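Objective 1b: paired records.
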Amino acid sequence: MVQGNDTSISEFILLGVSEEPELQPLIFGLFLSMYLITVLGNLLIILAVISDSHLHTPMYFFLSNLSLVDICFTSTTVPKMLMNIQTGSKVITYEGCITQMYFFILFAVLDNFLLTVMAYDRFVAICHPLHYTVIMNPRLCGLLVLVSWIMSALYSLLQNLMVLRLSFCTCLEVPHFFCELNQIVQLACSDTFLNTMVMYFGVVLLGGGPLAGILYSYSKIVSSIRGISSAQGKYKAFSTCASHLSVVSLFYGTILGVYLSSAATQNSHSSATASVMYALVTPMLNPFIYSLKNKDIKEALKRFFGMTSIKVPVVLGMRKCP
Protein backbone atom coordinates (compact mmCIF):
# COMPACT_ATOMS: atom_id res chain seq x y z
CA MET A 1 0.00 0.00 0.00
CA VAL A 2 1.35 3.41 -0.89
CA GLN A 3 2.12 5.48 2.18
CA GLY A 4 1.73 9.20 2.70
CA ASN A 5 -0.61 11.80 1.35
CA ASP A 6 -0.92 10.69 -2.26
CA THR A 7 -3.62 10.35 -4.86
CA SER A 8 -1.87 7.40 -6.58
CA ILE A 9 -2.82 4.84 -3.93
CA SER A 10 -3.07 1.21 -4.96
CA GLU A 11 -5.61 -0.35 -2.61
CA PHE A 12 -8.06 -0.03 0.27
CA ILE A 13 -8.70 -2.43 3.15
CA LEU A 14 -12.34 -3.48 3.67
CA LEU A 15 -12.74 -4.38 7.35
CA GLY A 16 -16.14 -5.98 6.73
CA VAL A 17 -19.08 -6.47 9.07
CA SER A 18 -16.93 -8.05 11.80
CA GLU A 19 -13.21 -8.61 12.32
CA GLU A 20 -13.72 -11.63 14.60
CA PRO A 21 -12.12 -14.66 12.86
CA GLU A 22 -14.52 -17.17 14.41
CA LEU A 23 -17.52 -15.30 12.97
CA GLN A 24 -16.26 -15.32 9.36
CA PRO A 25 -17.69 -18.77 8.41
CA LEU A 26 -21.08 -17.77 9.83
CA ILE A 27 -21.01 -14.43 8.01
CA PHE A 28 -19.96 -16.17 4.77
CA GLY A 29 -22.81 -18.69 4.97
CA LEU A 30 -25.38 -16.05 5.90
CA PHE A 31 -24.42 -13.63 3.14
CA LEU A 32 -24.15 -16.38 0.54
CA SER A 33 -27.62 -17.68 1.41
CA MET A 34 -29.16 -14.21 1.32
CA TYR A 35 -27.46 -13.44 -1.99
CA LEU A 36 -28.67 -16.64 -3.65
CA ILE A 37 -32.22 -16.07 -2.40
CA THR A 38 -32.10 -12.50 -3.71
CA VAL A 39 -30.90 -13.53 -7.16
CA LEU A 40 -33.28 -16.49 -7.45
CA GLY A 41 -36.35 -14.61 -6.20
CA ASN A 42 -35.85 -11.60 -8.45
CA LEU A 43 -34.91 -13.79 -11.40
CA LEU A 44 -38.19 -15.66 -11.07
CA ILE A 45 -40.05 -12.37 -11.28
CA ILE A 46 -38.19 -11.38 -14.45
CA LEU A 47 -38.75 -14.77 -16.09
CA ALA A 48 -42.44 -14.75 -15.21
CA VAL A 49 -42.99 -11.27 -16.66
CA ILE A 50 -41.01 -11.93 -19.85
CA SER A 51 -42.54 -15.33 -20.58
CA ASP A 52 -46.22 -14.46 -20.11
CA SER A 53 -47.96 -12.02 -22.43
CA HIS A 54 -50.67 -11.44 -19.81
CA LEU A 55 -48.05 -9.74 -17.65
CA HIS A 56 -46.93 -7.32 -20.34
CA THR A 57 -48.44 -4.35 -18.51
CA PRO A 58 -46.78 -1.18 -17.16
CA MET A 59 -46.96 -2.40 -13.56
CA TYR A 60 -45.11 -5.65 -14.27
CA PHE A 61 -42.73 -3.94 -16.68
CA PHE A 62 -41.57 -1.61 -13.90
CA LEU A 63 -41.48 -4.49 -11.44
CA SER A 64 -39.24 -6.59 -13.69
CA ASN A 65 -36.90 -3.63 -14.04
CA LEU A 66 -36.83 -3.25 -10.25
CA SER A 67 -35.97 -6.94 -9.90
CA LEU A 68 -33.13 -6.60 -12.41
CA VAL A 69 -31.75 -3.59 -10.55
CA ASP A 70 -31.96 -5.44 -7.22
CA ILE A 71 -29.92 -8.33 -8.65
CA CYS A 72 -27.29 -5.91 -9.93
CA PHE A 73 -27.39 -3.93 -6.68
CA THR A 74 -26.49 -6.91 -4.50
CA SER A 75 -24.04 -8.28 -7.07
CA THR A 76 -22.05 -5.06 -6.80
CA THR A 77 -20.99 -5.72 -3.20
CA VAL A 78 -21.70 -9.24 -1.95
CA PRO A 79 -19.52 -11.36 -4.33
CA LYS A 80 -16.44 -9.28 -3.48
CA MET A 81 -17.16 -9.62 0.23
CA LEU A 82 -17.59 -13.39 -0.08
CA MET A 83 -14.38 -13.65 -2.05
CA ASN A 84 -12.47 -11.69 0.58
CA ILE A 85 -13.77 -13.93 3.37
CA GLN A 86 -12.95 -17.07 1.37
CA THR A 87 -9.40 -15.97 0.54
CA GLY A 88 -8.75 -14.33 3.90
CA SER A 89 -7.88 -11.07 2.16
CA LYS A 90 -9.51 -7.73 2.91
CA VAL A 91 -7.92 -5.88 0.02
CA ILE A 92 -9.74 -4.12 -2.79
CA THR A 93 -7.78 -2.22 -5.42
CA TYR A 94 -8.26 1.51 -5.86
CA GLU A 95 -9.74 0.95 -9.31
CA GLY A 96 -11.99 -1.81 -7.96
CA CYS A 97 -13.17 0.42 -5.14
CA ILE A 98 -14.02 3.28 -7.49
CA THR A 99 -15.84 0.90 -9.84
CA GLN A 100 -17.78 -0.70 -6.98
CA MET A 101 -18.73 2.70 -5.63
CA TYR A 102 -19.96 3.84 -9.06
CA PHE A 103 -22.27 0.87 -9.59
CA PHE A 104 -23.49 0.85 -5.99
CA ILE A 105 -24.60 4.48 -6.26
CA LEU A 106 -26.02 3.86 -9.74
CA PHE A 107 -28.27 1.00 -8.68
CA ALA A 108 -29.22 2.55 -5.32
CA VAL A 109 -30.43 5.74 -7.03
CA LEU A 110 -32.09 3.71 -9.78
CA ASP A 111 -33.99 1.73 -7.14
CA ASN A 112 -35.20 5.03 -5.77
CA PHE A 113 -36.38 6.30 -9.16
CA LEU A 114 -38.13 3.05 -10.07
CA LEU A 115 -40.07 3.03 -6.81
CA THR A 116 -41.19 6.57 -7.65
CA VAL A 117 -42.23 5.57 -11.16
CA MET A 118 -44.19 2.64 -9.74
CA ALA A 119 -45.96 4.99 -7.34
CA TYR A 120 -46.95 7.18 -10.30
CA ASP A 121 -48.23 4.08 -12.12
CA ARG A 122 -50.44 3.20 -9.13
CA PHE A 123 -51.63 6.81 -8.93
CA VAL A 124 -52.77 6.77 -12.56
CA ALA A 125 -54.35 3.30 -12.23
CA ILE A 126 -56.46 4.24 -9.22
CA CYS A 127 -57.13 7.94 -9.72
CA HIS A 128 -57.56 7.85 -13.53
CA PRO A 129 -58.57 4.25 -14.35
CA LEU A 130 -60.45 5.12 -17.54
CA HIS A 131 -57.41 6.84 -19.02
CA TYR A 132 -54.82 4.42 -17.65
CA THR A 133 -53.94 2.67 -20.91
CA VAL A 134 -53.72 5.99 -22.73
CA ILE A 135 -51.51 7.70 -20.15
CA MET A 136 -49.27 4.72 -19.32
CA ASN A 137 -48.53 3.83 -22.92
CA PRO A 138 -45.43 1.78 -23.85
CA ARG A 139 -43.58 4.88 -25.07
CA LEU A 140 -44.01 6.70 -21.75
CA CYS A 141 -43.08 3.60 -19.72
CA GLY A 142 -39.90 3.11 -21.72
CA LEU A 143 -39.07 6.80 -21.45
CA LEU A 144 -39.53 6.82 -17.66
CA VAL A 145 -37.15 3.89 -17.24
CA LEU A 146 -34.62 5.37 -19.69
CA VAL A 147 -34.60 8.74 -17.92
CA SER A 148 -34.17 6.96 -14.58
CA TRP A 149 -31.11 5.12 -15.92
CA ILE A 150 -29.58 8.27 -17.42
CA MET A 151 -30.07 10.40 -14.30
CA SER A 152 -28.71 7.65 -12.04
CA ALA A 153 -25.66 7.12 -14.26
CA LEU A 154 -24.89 10.84 -14.42
CA TYR A 155 -25.24 11.32 -10.66
CA SER A 156 -23.04 8.31 -9.93
CA LEU A 157 -20.46 9.59 -12.40
CA LEU A 158 -20.47 12.99 -10.71
CA GLN A 159 -19.85 11.45 -7.29
CA ASN A 160 -17.01 9.33 -8.64
CA LEU A 161 -15.35 12.29 -10.32
CA MET A 162 -15.55 14.15 -7.04
CA VAL A 163 -13.76 11.28 -5.27
CA LEU A 164 -11.08 11.03 -7.97
CA ARG A 165 -9.91 14.56 -7.16
CA LEU A 166 -9.16 13.65 -3.53
CA SER A 167 -5.81 12.67 -2.07
CA PHE A 168 -5.66 10.04 0.66
CA CYS A 169 -3.67 9.49 3.83
CA THR A 170 -1.78 6.45 5.05
CA CYS A 171 -4.81 5.02 6.85
CA LEU A 172 -6.87 3.42 4.09
CA GLU A 173 -8.96 1.05 6.18
CA VAL A 174 -12.66 1.19 5.29
CA PRO A 175 -14.84 0.11 8.26
CA HIS A 176 -17.39 -1.39 5.89
CA PHE A 177 -17.93 -4.46 3.70
CA PHE A 178 -17.96 -2.35 0.52
CA CYS A 179 -16.64 0.99 -0.69
CA GLU A 180 -19.32 3.26 0.72
CA LEU A 181 -19.06 6.83 -0.57
CA ASN A 182 -19.14 8.62 2.77
CA GLN A 183 -16.56 6.28 4.32
CA ILE A 184 -14.17 6.78 1.40
CA VAL A 185 -14.50 10.56 1.55
CA GLN A 186 -13.74 10.51 5.28
CA LEU A 187 -10.39 8.82 4.57
CA ALA A 188 -9.21 11.70 2.40
CA CYS A 189 -6.51 14.10 3.59
CA SER A 190 -7.47 16.85 1.16
CA ASP A 191 -10.37 19.26 1.59
CA THR A 192 -13.68 17.37 1.35
CA PHE A 193 -16.05 20.31 1.76
CA LEU A 194 -17.13 20.25 -1.89
CA ASN A 195 -17.64 16.48 -1.78
CA THR A 196 -19.80 16.82 1.32
CA MET A 197 -21.90 19.54 -0.26
CA VAL A 198 -22.44 17.48 -3.42
CA MET A 199 -23.44 14.46 -1.30
CA TYR A 200 -25.97 16.47 0.72
CA PHE A 201 -27.29 18.10 -2.44
CA GLY A 202 -27.72 14.67 -4.01
CA VAL A 203 -29.54 13.33 -0.95
CA VAL A 204 -31.95 16.27 -0.94
CA LEU A 205 -32.53 16.33 -4.70
CA LEU A 206 -32.46 12.63 -5.63
CA GLY A 207 -33.68 11.30 -2.29
CA GLY A 208 -36.12 13.91 -1.04
CA GLY A 209 -37.52 14.68 -4.50
CA PRO A 210 -38.65 11.12 -5.36
CA LEU A 211 -39.87 10.57 -1.79
CA ALA A 212 -41.98 13.71 -2.04
CA GLY A 213 -43.38 12.39 -5.34
CA ILE A 214 -44.26 9.06 -3.73
CA LEU A 215 -45.95 10.75 -0.77
CA TYR A 216 -47.92 13.03 -3.10
CA SER A 217 -49.04 10.07 -5.23
CA TYR A 218 -50.22 8.14 -2.21
CA SER A 219 -51.99 11.14 -0.73
CA LYS A 220 -54.02 11.31 -3.94
CA ILE A 221 -54.52 7.54 -3.93
CA VAL A 222 -55.82 7.58 -0.34
CA SER A 223 -58.15 10.44 -1.18
CA SER A 224 -59.46 8.55 -4.21
CA ILE A 225 -59.93 5.30 -2.25
CA ARG A 226 -61.86 7.13 0.46
CA GLY A 227 -64.28 8.28 -2.22
CA ILE A 228 -65.16 4.70 -3.20
CA SER A 229 -68.51 3.75 -1.72
CA SER A 230 -68.22 -0.04 -1.37
CA ALA A 231 -65.86 -1.73 1.09
CA GLN A 232 -64.96 -4.33 -1.53
CA GLY A 233 -64.01 -1.61 -3.99
CA LYS A 234 -61.81 0.06 -1.40
CA TYR A 235 -60.06 -3.22 -0.60
CA LYS A 236 -59.50 -4.00 -4.28
CA ALA A 237 -58.01 -0.56 -4.92
CA PHE A 238 -55.79 -0.69 -1.85
CA SER A 239 -54.57 -4.21 -2.64
CA THR A 240 -52.99 -2.95 -5.87
CA CYS A 241 -50.77 -0.64 -3.79
CA ALA A 242 -50.10 -2.68 -0.66
CA SER A 243 -47.01 -4.49 -1.93
CA HIS A 244 -45.43 -1.38 -3.41
CA LEU A 245 -46.15 0.61 -0.27
CA SER A 246 -44.51 -2.09 1.84
CA VAL A 247 -41.37 -2.05 -0.32
CA VAL A 248 -41.21 1.76 -0.20
CA SER A 249 -41.53 1.70 3.59
CA LEU A 250 -38.82 -0.94 3.86
CA PHE A 251 -36.46 0.84 1.45
CA TYR A 252 -36.70 4.32 2.97
CA GLY A 253 -37.13 3.05 6.52
CA THR A 254 -33.90 1.02 6.46
CA ILE A 255 -31.88 3.79 4.82
CA LEU A 256 -33.18 6.38 7.27
CA GLY A 257 -32.55 4.04 10.17
CA VAL A 258 -28.98 3.34 9.05
CA TYR A 259 -28.00 6.97 8.76
CA LEU A 260 -29.79 8.10 11.90
CA SER A 261 -28.15 5.34 13.94
CA SER A 262 -24.81 6.12 12.34
CA ALA A 263 -25.11 9.80 13.23
CA ALA A 264 -26.19 8.99 16.78
CA THR A 265 -23.56 6.36 17.63
CA GLN A 266 -20.68 7.50 15.42
CA ASN A 267 -19.74 3.82 15.26
CA SER A 268 -18.57 2.82 11.79
CA HIS A 269 -18.88 -0.92 12.40
CA SER A 270 -22.45 -0.50 13.65
CA SER A 271 -23.17 1.47 10.51
CA ALA A 272 -21.71 -1.32 8.36
CA THR A 273 -23.90 -3.90 10.06
CA ALA A 274 -26.99 -1.71 9.70
CA SER A 275 -26.18 -1.11 6.02
CA VAL A 276 -26.79 -4.80 5.39
CA MET A 277 -30.50 -3.98 5.77
CA TYR A 278 -30.81 -1.80 2.68
CA ALA A 279 -27.89 -3.29 0.73
CA LEU A 280 -29.02 -6.92 0.94
CA VAL A 281 -32.07 -7.56 3.13
CA THR A 282 -34.39 -5.18 1.26
CA PRO A 283 -33.60 -6.62 -2.23
CA MET A 284 -34.00 -10.12 -0.78
CA LEU A 285 -37.41 -9.39 0.74
CA ASN A 286 -38.85 -7.60 -2.30
CA PRO A 287 -39.74 -10.84 -4.16
CA PHE A 288 -41.42 -12.22 -1.02
CA ILE A 289 -43.43 -9.03 -0.53
CA TYR A 290 -44.54 -8.95 -4.16
CA SER A 291 -45.37 -12.66 -4.20
CA LEU A 292 -48.19 -12.52 -1.66
CA LYS A 293 -51.36 -14.02 -3.14
CA ASN A 294 -50.50 -13.25 -6.76
CA LYS A 295 -52.16 -15.83 -8.97
CA ASP A 296 -51.04 -14.18 -12.21
CA ILE A 297 -47.35 -14.77 -11.54
CA LYS A 298 -47.90 -18.30 -10.24
CA GLU A 299 -49.83 -19.21 -13.37
CA ALA A 300 -47.12 -17.61 -15.50
CA LEU A 301 -44.46 -19.74 -13.79
CA LYS A 302 -46.56 -22.86 -14.32
CA ARG A 303 -46.64 -22.18 -18.03
CA PHE A 304 -42.96 -21.24 -18.09
CA PHE A 305 -41.83 -24.48 -16.47
CA GLY A 306 -44.46 -26.52 -18.30
CA MET A 307 -46.03 -27.78 -15.10
CA THR A 308 -49.66 -28.35 -14.29
CA SER A 309 -49.15 -27.82 -10.58
CA ILE A 310 -46.51 -25.71 -8.89
CA LYS A 311 -46.17 -24.05 -5.54
CA VAL A 312 -44.23 -20.83 -5.65
CA PRO A 313 -43.70 -19.00 -2.36
CA VAL A 314 -41.66 -16.30 -4.03
CA VAL A 315 -42.79 -13.91 -6.70
CA LEU A 316 -45.27 -11.02 -6.92
CA GLY A 317 -48.11 -9.51 -4.95
CA MET A 318 -49.63 -6.79 -7.04
CA ARG A 319 -52.73 -7.22 -9.10
CA LYS A 320 -53.36 -5.99 -12.60
CA CYS A 321 -54.41 -2.44 -13.12
CA PRO A 322 -58.12 -1.77 -12.77
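Objective 1b, second protein:
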Amino acid sequence: MSLETLASRVGFLISRSSTSRGLIPTRFFSTTSTKMALESYTFGPYKIDSREVFYNTNLSYALVNMRPVVPGHVLVCPRREVKRFADLTVDETSDLWITAQKVGSRLESYHKATSLTLTIQDGPQAGQTVPHVHIHILPRKGGDFENNDEIYDALDEKEKELKQKLDLDKERKDRSLEEMAQEAEEYRKLFL
Protein backbone atom coordinates (compact mmCIF):
# COMPACT_ATOMS: atom_id res chain seq x y z
CA MET A 1 0.00 0.00 0.00
CA SER A 2 1.38 3.40 -0.95
CA LEU A 3 1.97 6.15 1.59
CA GLU A 4 -0.64 8.31 -0.22
CA THR A 5 -3.29 5.56 0.06
CA LEU A 6 -2.50 4.93 3.71
CA ALA A 7 -2.56 8.66 4.51
CA SER A 8 -5.92 9.13 2.79
CA ARG A 9 -7.44 6.18 4.68
CA VAL A 10 -6.44 7.62 8.05
CA GLY A 11 -7.45 11.18 7.16
CA PHE A 12 -4.17 12.86 6.30
CA LEU A 13 -2.95 14.73 3.26
CA ILE A 14 0.65 14.44 2.13
CA SER A 15 2.12 17.87 1.46
CA ARG A 16 4.74 18.23 -1.23
CA SER A 17 5.07 22.02 -1.06
CA SER A 18 8.49 23.50 -0.41
CA THR A 19 7.30 25.36 2.67
CA SER A 20 5.74 22.43 4.52
CA ARG A 21 6.46 18.80 3.86
CA GLY A 22 4.75 15.97 5.64
CA LEU A 23 1.35 14.85 6.79
CA ILE A 24 -1.45 17.34 7.32
CA PRO A 25 -4.80 16.27 8.84
CA THR A 26 -7.41 16.51 6.08
CA ARG A 27 -9.97 17.96 8.46
CA PHE A 28 -8.13 21.29 8.02
CA PHE A 29 -9.14 21.46 4.34
CA SER A 30 -12.39 21.11 2.44
CA THR A 31 -12.07 18.79 -0.55
CA THR A 32 -12.62 21.69 -2.94
CA SER A 33 -9.94 23.92 -1.51
CA THR A 34 -7.33 21.31 -0.51
CA LYS A 35 -5.26 21.77 -3.64
CA MET A 36 -5.57 25.56 -3.50
CA ALA A 37 -4.61 25.69 0.18
CA LEU A 38 -1.34 23.93 -0.56
CA GLU A 39 -0.41 26.07 -3.55
CA SER A 40 1.18 29.48 -3.54
CA TYR A 41 -0.03 32.39 -5.64
CA THR A 42 1.56 35.66 -6.60
CA PHE A 43 0.07 38.75 -8.16
CA GLY A 44 2.98 40.69 -9.56
CA PRO A 45 5.37 41.21 -6.65
CA TYR A 46 2.68 40.33 -4.05
CA LYS A 47 2.04 37.00 -2.37
CA ILE A 48 -1.65 36.12 -2.40
CA ASP A 49 -3.09 34.21 0.53
CA SER A 50 -4.58 30.98 -0.85
CA ARG A 51 -7.82 31.72 1.04
CA GLU A 52 -8.45 34.58 -1.43
CA VAL A 53 -8.32 32.21 -4.42
CA PHE A 54 -11.58 30.48 -5.28
CA TYR A 55 -10.89 28.84 -8.64
CA ASN A 56 -7.79 27.66 -10.46
CA THR A 57 -6.53 25.72 -13.44
CA ASN A 58 -3.01 24.70 -14.39
CA LEU A 59 -2.47 28.09 -16.06
CA SER A 60 -4.88 30.56 -14.37
CA TYR A 61 -6.51 31.41 -11.07
CA ALA A 62 -9.37 33.60 -9.87
CA LEU A 63 -9.31 35.61 -6.66
CA VAL A 64 -11.55 38.00 -4.81
CA ASN A 65 -10.74 41.68 -5.10
CA MET A 66 -9.30 43.72 -2.23
CA ARG A 67 -11.26 46.79 -3.36
CA PRO A 68 -14.31 45.68 -5.34
CA VAL A 69 -16.17 48.26 -7.42
CA VAL A 70 -19.41 46.21 -7.36
CA PRO A 71 -20.38 43.02 -5.49
CA GLY A 72 -18.69 40.07 -7.16
CA HIS A 73 -15.83 42.10 -8.69
CA VAL A 74 -13.03 39.53 -9.00
CA LEU A 75 -9.77 39.10 -10.88
CA VAL A 76 -8.58 36.28 -13.15
CA CYS A 77 -4.79 36.03 -13.58
CA PRO A 78 -2.33 33.78 -15.33
CA ARG A 79 -0.27 31.74 -12.86
CA ARG A 80 2.93 32.84 -14.55
CA GLU A 81 3.78 36.46 -13.81
CA VAL A 82 3.36 38.18 -17.16
CA LYS A 83 3.32 41.98 -17.32
CA ARG A 84 1.58 42.53 -20.65
CA PHE A 85 -1.22 40.73 -22.45
CA ALA A 86 0.83 40.31 -25.67
CA ASP A 87 3.44 38.35 -23.69
CA LEU A 88 1.07 35.52 -22.77
CA THR A 89 1.49 32.22 -24.59
CA VAL A 90 -1.37 30.98 -26.78
CA ASP A 91 -2.26 28.38 -24.12
CA GLU A 92 -2.21 30.99 -21.33
CA THR A 93 -4.40 33.35 -23.36
CA SER A 94 -6.92 30.64 -24.10
CA ASP A 95 -7.01 29.36 -20.53
CA LEU A 96 -7.29 32.87 -19.09
CA TRP A 97 -10.37 33.67 -21.20
CA ILE A 98 -11.98 30.27 -20.70
CA THR A 99 -11.51 30.73 -16.95
CA ALA A 100 -12.95 34.25 -17.14
CA GLN A 101 -15.95 32.93 -19.08
CA LYS A 102 -16.63 30.19 -16.50
CA VAL A 103 -16.08 32.44 -13.48
CA GLY A 104 -18.11 35.29 -14.97
CA SER A 105 -21.04 33.04 -15.79
CA ARG A 106 -21.21 31.61 -12.26
CA LEU A 107 -20.83 35.01 -10.57
CA GLU A 108 -23.42 36.66 -12.81
CA SER A 109 -25.92 34.01 -11.73
CA TYR A 110 -24.83 34.07 -8.06
CA HIS A 111 -25.22 37.85 -7.81
CA LYS A 112 -28.45 37.86 -9.85
CA ALA A 113 -26.81 40.21 -12.32
CA THR A 114 -27.91 40.69 -15.91
CA SER A 115 -24.57 41.45 -17.56
CA LEU A 116 -20.81 41.33 -17.09
CA THR A 117 -18.01 43.80 -17.62
CA LEU A 118 -14.73 42.05 -18.45
CA THR A 119 -11.76 44.35 -18.80
CA ILE A 120 -7.97 44.35 -18.89
CA GLN A 121 -5.87 47.40 -18.13
CA ASP A 122 -2.82 46.51 -20.20
CA GLY A 123 0.13 48.68 -19.14
CA PRO A 124 0.58 51.65 -16.81
CA GLN A 125 -0.95 54.24 -19.16
CA ALA A 126 -4.07 52.05 -19.36
CA GLY A 127 -4.40 52.17 -15.55
CA GLN A 128 -2.64 48.90 -14.69
CA THR A 129 -1.10 49.27 -11.22
CA VAL A 130 0.08 45.69 -10.63
CA PRO A 131 2.47 44.48 -13.34
CA HIS A 132 0.72 41.13 -13.82
CA VAL A 133 -1.93 40.60 -16.51
CA HIS A 134 -5.38 40.30 -14.97
CA ILE A 135 -8.97 40.39 -16.15
CA HIS A 136 -11.46 42.31 -14.02
CA ILE A 137 -14.85 40.59 -13.94
CA LEU A 138 -17.71 42.73 -12.69
CA PRO A 139 -21.28 41.41 -12.45
CA ARG A 140 -23.58 44.22 -13.62
CA LYS A 141 -27.17 45.16 -12.82
CA GLY A 142 -29.41 47.82 -14.26
CA GLY A 143 -28.83 51.15 -12.52
CA ASP A 144 -25.57 50.15 -10.79
CA PHE A 145 -24.05 53.26 -12.40
CA GLU A 146 -25.94 56.29 -13.66
CA ASN A 147 -24.08 56.16 -16.97
CA ASN A 148 -22.98 52.68 -18.00
CA ASP A 149 -19.40 53.67 -18.87
CA GLU A 150 -18.85 55.16 -15.39
CA ILE A 151 -17.74 51.67 -14.43
CA TYR A 152 -14.42 52.44 -16.13
CA ASP A 153 -14.02 55.65 -14.13
CA ALA A 154 -14.73 53.66 -10.96
CA LEU A 155 -12.13 51.05 -11.94
CA ASP A 156 -9.59 53.79 -12.61
CA GLU A 157 -10.34 55.35 -9.21
CA LYS A 158 -9.93 52.02 -7.39
CA GLU A 159 -6.66 51.39 -9.25
CA LYS A 160 -5.40 54.87 -8.27
CA GLU A 161 -6.33 54.21 -4.63
CA LEU A 162 -4.50 50.89 -4.79
CA LYS A 163 -1.45 52.51 -6.38
CA GLN A 164 -1.38 55.14 -3.61
CA LYS A 165 -1.64 52.41 -1.01
CA LEU A 166 1.14 50.41 -2.63
CA ASP A 167 3.37 53.44 -3.28
CA LEU A 168 2.80 55.37 -0.09
CA ASP A 169 1.69 52.62 2.27
CA LYS A 170 -1.11 54.85 3.54
CA GLU A 171 -3.66 53.59 6.02
CA ARG A 172 -5.50 50.68 4.43
CA LYS A 173 -9.13 50.94 3.43
CA ASP A 174 -9.01 47.44 2.04
CA ARG A 175 -11.24 44.57 3.02
CA SER A 176 -9.78 42.26 5.64
CA LEU A 177 -8.35 38.88 4.75
CA GLU A 178 -11.20 37.30 6.72
CA GLU A 179 -13.80 39.14 4.60
CA MET A 180 -12.07 38.12 1.39
CA ALA A 181 -11.58 34.51 2.56
CA GLN A 182 -15.27 34.24 3.44
CA GLU A 183 -16.27 35.55 0.01
CA ALA A 184 -13.83 33.19 -1.73
CA GLU A 185 -15.24 30.24 0.23
CA GLU A 186 -18.76 31.13 -1.01
CA TYR A 187 -17.51 31.34 -4.60
CA ARG A 188 -15.68 27.98 -4.34
CA LYS A 189 -19.06 26.33 -3.79
CA LEU A 190 -20.11 27.52 -7.26
CA PHE A 191 -17.55 25.17 -8.84
CA LEU A 192 -18.40 21.93 -7.03
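DSSP finds five helices and nine strands in the chain. The chain has a mean pLDDT of 79.
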